[in-house]
Amino acid sequence: MAPLSLTIKTVADDSFPLEIDDEETAEDLAVLAISVRPELGEEDLPKLIHKGKVLKPEQTLKEIGIQSGDFAVAMGKTAPKKVEAAPAPAAAAAPAPYPAPAATPAAPAGGSAAGPPEALISELCGMGFERPKVIQALEAAFNNPERAVEYLFNGIPAAAAPAAAAGTGWPLGVLGPQLLTKAGLQPTEQALGGAKVVALYFSAHWCPPCRSFTPSLASALSSGRFPQLAVVFVSSDRDPASFQSYYNEMPWLAVLYESMQRQMLGGMFQVRGIPSLIILDAQTGRQISENGTGDVRNNRFDIEACLRAWGAPSEPVATTPALAAASQPEVKPDAPNKSGPPPTEIDEEIAKAALSRVRAAEYEVQETFFKTGLKLLENTLQTPGEPKFRTLKTSNAALQSKLFSVGDGAAKDLLLLAGFEESEDAFTLPGPPDGRCSAVRDKMQAAATAAWEAKARADRDARIAAEIEKDKNNAPRYSGGNDNGRHNIGSDRRRQGGG
User: Fold this and answer.
1) 421-422 and 426-428 beta bridge pairing
2) Residue 376: closest CA among 433, 292, 302
3) Beta partners for 9?
4) Residue 334 has what DSSP assignment?
5) Beta strand ranges found along 176-252 (DSSP E)
6) Tens of pLDDT, residues 127-177
7) Which residue, 207, 221, 349, 226, is CA-closest to 276?
8) Mind listing the pLDDT tens digit for each residue in 90-130?
9) What DSSP element (H or E) covers 7?
10) Cα 125 vs. chain centroid, distance in angstroms?
11) Which residues lie closer than 8 Å to 89 by C-beta, 6 or more apart?
12) C-alpha to C-alpha distances, 9 to 44, 146, 379, nearest whole angstrom
């Protein structure tokens, strides 16, 4: 019997020394490893690997041929690490971009263009695995080292291999064959449509910074003016019910909660905090930005500016007149047909405060809010006997992004003024609409018209200022003149009477 001095390494890049006799078994070594690192055996004894081979529990270390100074790799069946919430930014300062590790290129069609990162290859080869098998496992695992080790032990499952082996395009392998949309499940490539940029949105309902960021992002995208951007929710929620509840507040796509892809995407893109937006080229899967959250915040949720920074600007307009027309609100809001009963008195102060909060939003958000709200009230007033128009579900994703998330509860205040009653998941008008509903409709219409007029004036003034600046820059240059650069012809003549 001879004592051995061994080193035990873990997948988490941890190592520690152990002393054991060579007549002891691999199972004894595993038990000894657990005594030092209990987390390795939360569910079962860890697997031990020596020179690329999984040790049989009943074999003695002497039979295996382990020598003093050797190392073995211990792999425990531990639960996946939870993503920690990034700290909320200080109220007094502009939020800084969330810290993130150095960029790791995304893996188009199962791996990066240059193959898995060399550091990961070296780490797994250091466990005794052959380099070709390590590369194959990493490509199938989309560079997730823990999953790659699992594949090295147990073989690569058929479901994990197709994108890397057949070159079927990155979305299928990275996001899975289907995505969840507001209309139900769709094939991944169909759901992404003609997007030029894909934003993977790592978020969770339990995370306070996420609950603040999500409504702002939804409002910025509510106009539907950015078909070149596809946002895909990757949930860090703790159970399917939390995922579904949170997704109901979102207007975009989602990776299936139960899918293998959802579990491995955080590791693949080295996400260290949420909320996090990973920006990818929709054609190749190449990573464009690892800090999309910071990009959006720094541009004050101006999605058009973000798309320019990500290399996918809006389609250019051919001529200056067309550009001027496009910069105006599309159509002045139509006045309603004044259907329904005559308006009656409502609380003017509450209505004024609610509409004032809506006016604080960007025009595109206001426009969508007023169009949606007016349409709902008009449906109710025009068909008072139809119950389906008198119930508004707060869980409806479209209503949540276009109406309920705007103006800090403005829609709630206005609906209550109109006679609706609030329940746990809906606003319901208990009977046919009365004059209160007409009064709120009229006030919303007046506010919508005022918002349109203010936007039209601002666009007009901006175009005039641009034309003046252009004329200034194109004006012919003269030499001489007074301090203002202007020739005052004849100004030095004395004013005299007569000829």
Assistant:
1) antiparallel
2) 433
3) 15, 73
4) P
5) 178-181, 184-187, 197-203, 229-235
6) 778 888 888 887 776 666 667 777 787 777 655 554 444 444 678 778 888
7) 207
8) 333 333 333 333 333 333 333 444 456 676 787 778 777 88
9) strand 3-10
10) 35
11) 95, 96, 209
12) 18, 13, 67
d(CA 341, CA 327): 37
- Can you give the pLDDT at residue 42? 57
DSSP class of residue 422 equals E
Q: Whose CA is closest to 220, among 290, 305, 309, 326?
A: 305
Predicted pLDDT at 156: 76
Task: Give 254's pLDDT tier (boundaries 50, 70, 90).
Answer: very high
C-alpha torsion sign, points 476, 477, 480, 481: positive
- Output the six-digit token pair for 489: 């012809």
- Which neighbouring-strand residues pair with 10? 74
Higher pLDDT, 491 or 34: 34
Tokens 């599309």 found at = 330
Alpha carbons 13 and 15: distance in angstroms, whole number: 7
The closest alpha carbon to 215, from 252, 178, 181, 241, belongs to 252
Which long-range contacts link 256-260 to residues 24+ away (Cβ below 8 Å)? 256/176, 256/178, 256/179, 256/180, 256/185, 259/176, 260/159, 260/160, 260/176
The full DSSP string for 150-189 is HHHHH---GGGSHHHHH---HHHHHH-SEEEETTEEEEHH
Range 67-81 average pLDDT: 70
Cα 162 from Cα 169, distance rounded (Å):
10
User: 219 and 257 in contact (C-beta within 8 Å)?
Assistant: no
Of the two residues 183 and 95, the one the predictor is more confident about is: 183
Six-digit token string for 138: 């990493």
Where would I find the H helices in 291-347?
292-298, 303-309, 320-327
- Name the one residue in this structure whose structure tokens are 């007016």: 374
Instruction: Tell me whether residue 443 is exposed, middle or buried, using C-beta atoms within 10 angstroms of its C-beta: 0 to 12, 13 to 18, 19 or more.
Output: buried
pLDDT at 277 over 90: yes
